[in-house]
Amino acid sequence: MSSFLNAPFLRLMRGRLRQVESYSRNAGSIQRAQLEYLLRAGARTEYGQRYGFDRIGSEEAFRNTVPVIGYEALQPYVERLMKGEDFLLWPEKIRWFAKSSGTTNSKSKYIPVSRQALYQCHYKGGKDLFALYLKDHPRSGIFSGKNVSLGGSLHPAPWGKASCGDVSAIITKNLPLWAEARRSPSKKISLMDGWEKKLDRMARSTLKQDIRSFLGVPSWMMLFLQKTLEISGKGSLREIWPDMELFVHGGVSFTPYRQQFEQLMGQPFSYLETYNASEGFFGIQDDLSQPDMLLMLDYGVYYEFMPLEESGKEHPQTAGIEEVLPGKNYALVITTNAGLWRYLIGDTVVFTSVRPYRFRISGRTRHFINTFGEELMVENADQALMRACRETGAEIADYTAAPVFLDSKNQARHQWLVEFRKEPESMEAFALALDKHLKEANSDYEAKRSDGLLLKAPQVIPLPAGTFFRWLQGKGKLGGQHKIPRLSNQRDFVRELLALCGETSPEP
């Protein structure tokens, strides 16, 4: 069904689409302009005065003068901002802090969110993703109905009068009228506390609405859709929302969930990935026939890319946008219009092309397994699990994996805790398929598995339905963008999950 709103929206966005198309030709100059703007604004802050932003005249000087930092170095500034101090990192009052979902331990990260970041980064990304989608789907009916967006809630910050919560909740709270008019459910429901109660209210409030699109983290969106089906008593989502057409997803890899969504949504239906994090909006899948995303270069973000071999160094070397190589893993370093200066965000990316600059998220700087030299990344795990599911007819809800260390009682191996929506007929066949496809995806893993001399075959332990939900619930991390840590070099997460199920860890 076509929409009469598509044509005027695309006319308004015509100039913007031309700017996005220019990314291929002008990436370097666009990024240099972003850095100049950020340095001019940042020069009026305490951080800018500390590092002499007004004297920095080049990308090289910026990298030589300003250190790459993690959250530990940022935290003292965040605490002062929450207590009411201003102009520390960015020249405006910061009253919103995104409670980062990048960690699932007990210590939360609070990322400053400025008004500039909301409007020139997050909301600009929202307009761009719909413009790029409509450019290739001019007869879409997406504006004829409403969009369901899943998000978290807001709470007073630990210090002062600021507010904090999931970045999706901050975005929802401050939505401009053009966006609020097209979303569902109401802000009152969207910002509710208590994920289980909110899920029920959301499902009931959207049942009789004309829903055309969905936006959220795949794992939580799946729970919402299943809850809606349960309440409605219908046999399919098409019976509830006959004109639904698009799911905009992000936060975790969609690969393990694609098959389940395709079965649930049916055809025709489109899936569009975005990279919208607590720290900013960075990427949009501009071609739905390709699995990668376009790096958005003019959102008030300056990007650097750190080769993984530089991790842990006091003065790590980074590459600018014109220096990156396709196929190489980089840790993402960002400088933003929310006052993050050379901040190591924790995600790793791989470029699939450089004109234009398209990439995919390959994992987390801390979420990988490299205990035995296997260098297993989340991207490898997602692909292998998807293929194992196809071979065995299984469906996965969530998973995590960690090494079992070599000692007098245990053989070195990887242990996979998997919550299945549909278990395979043979768990042994599933483990064999997983092992086979991990070897295909990662030559280092294949080498360490050679003849089983160093690394034995993986062990797959099925968990009862709802285990990961209860684990997140126990940590106060339900809903929003909170997610399961996929891979870890340590056994902390595995130990907690096994204990939750009454199982014993194989460690002595």
Count of strand segments: 20
- Widest sheet: strand order? 6-3-7-8-9-10-11-15-14-13-12
Q: Helical percent range?
A: 25-40%
DSSP helical segment count:
19
Radius of gyration: 23 Å
Structural class by helix and strand composition: alpha/beta
Largest sheet: 11 strands, mixed
Mean pLDDT: 89
Poorly predicted parts: 101-106
Portion in beta strands: 15-25%
Describe the global form.
globular
How many angstroms separate the termini?
62 Å
List the helices and strands and how they pair.
Blueprint: H1 6-12, H2 14-21, H3 23-42, H4 46-50, H5 59-65, H6 71-82, E1 96-99, E2 110-113, H7 115-136, E3 146-149, E4 154-156, E5 163-165, H8 167-173, H9 177-180, E6 183-184, H10 187-190, H11 195-206, E7 211-216, H12 218-232, H13 237-240, E8 246-249, H14 258-265, E9 270-277, E10 280-284, E11 293-295, E12 301-307, E13 329-336, E14 343-354, E15 357-364, E16 368-369, E17 376-377, H15 378-392, E18 395-404, E19 413-422, H16 427-441, H17 443-448, E20 459-462, H18 467-474, H19 492-500
Parallel strand pairs: 1-5, 3-6, 3-7, 7-8, 8-9, 19-20
Antiparallel strand pairs: 1-2, 4-5, 9-10, 10-11, 11-15, 12-13, 13-14, 14-15, 16-17, 18-19
Helix pairs in contact: 11-12, 15-16
Describe this structure in words.
This protein is α/β, with parallel strands linked by helices and 508 residues long. Helix content is 37%, strand content 21%. The chain contains 19 helices and 20 strands. The protein has helices at 6-12, 14-21, 23-42, 46-50, 59-65, 71-82, 115-136, 167-173, 177-180, 187-190, 195-206, 218-232, 237-240, 258-265, 378-392, 427-441, 443-448, 467-474, 492-500, and strands at 96-99, 110-113, 146-149, 154-156, 163-165, 183-184, 211-216, 246-249, 270-277, 280-284, 293-295, 301-307, 329-336, 343-354, 357-364, 368-369, 376-377, 395-404, 413-422, 459-462. The strands form 4 sheets. It has an 11-stranded mixed sheet, with helices on both faces. A hairpin with a 2-residue loop joins strand 14 and strand 15 (357-364). Helix 15 (378-392) crosses helix 16 (427-441). The radius of gyration is 23 Å and the shape is globular. Residues 101-106 have low confidence and may be disordered.
